[in-house]
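Deviation from plan, reported transparently: flavin-adenine dinucleotide complex.
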Amino acid sequence: MTAVQTCRRLLAGLAALPTVSLVPDARADSETDVVVIGAGAAGLAASRELRRNQLRVTTLEARNRIGGRAYTDHEIFGVPYDTGAHWLQGGNRNPFLRSAERDGFTVYPAPDNEIVYIGKREATDAEYAAFDLARRTTLAAISAAGRRGRDVSPAEVVPDTGEWHDLVHFSIGPYEEGKDYDGFSCLDWWESGGGADRYCREGYGALLAHSARDIPVHLSTPATTVDWSGNGVVVSTESGSIRAHACLVTASTGGWPPGRSASILSYL
Ligand SMILES: Cc1cc2nc3c(=O)[nH]c(=O)nc-3n(C[C@H](O)[C@H](O)[C@H](O)COP(=O)(O)OP(=O)(O)OC[C@H]3O[C@@H](n4cnc5c(N)ncnc54)[C@H](O)[C@@H]3O)c2cc1C
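Because the crystal trials were delayed, the predicted structure below was used instead.
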């Protein structure tokens, strides 16, 4: 086995271990500069940036692991399996590319082919060609609007592609963006694109967790309330309150557990 293979095996093994909090319990009734709620990609990036600026940061995570919606499971199939984010998007602008290459992760181009079924059979060559044309025509319209800086939804610019319209809508809207055409912006779409997508063999979630290995996180510590009524802010957890100058809420709108995030978000 080569040194690189050994390193990759080691990384895969490390990634398979449950994430260990460097700070297992939130300090009861403590003080800090900033409380960051949530240790997904946003909360981890914010925590890193704030610490880099010499601020005292307390990062709270409701779950017993970091990563949020970018998480690699190792149990379900016995191989790294991303339960959420999987495509490294943004081409060479994706900041994870550099750390992946530096730290021995395996990153490779994501296959760009889609399999289309019409009922129970695969599409014919002619149908594939028609679908491809309809999709390219639609993407060209969205790109043109985004490139011109138009902050309008695709619903306002996409052409009618006849019988392929619904399938193209599904593949660009709900499948890729999690939204219908009228739920996102051509400008955002244009600015978030650029370059071929990539996969990470060890998992995108594992890559994120590895890149955040030095960030202390209080796991299993949901923030229950955020009180902005006085000077600064007081964040409550089951193990005590934290007084801070500022609080950054990165909890997903999906919530954890149901009800709790909603009560936090209602303070925003
Ligand atoms: C199925 C799926 C596929 C995806 N595919 C891709 C992809 O291929 N490429 C890509 O770039 N993106 C993809 N995404 C999107 C990407 O995963 C998210 O945009 C990103 O992970 C969001 O990060 P976040 O930090 O904003 O939120 P989250 O990851 O949701 O993090 C929020 C964190 O806050 C915690 N939290 C919630 N409430 C509290 C509380 N009260 N106290 C403390 N902590 C709390 C949560 O437990 C969670 O860890 C996908 C998402 C999903 C769901």
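The chain has two domains: 3-107+202-265, 120-192. We consider this an acceptable substitute for the interim report.
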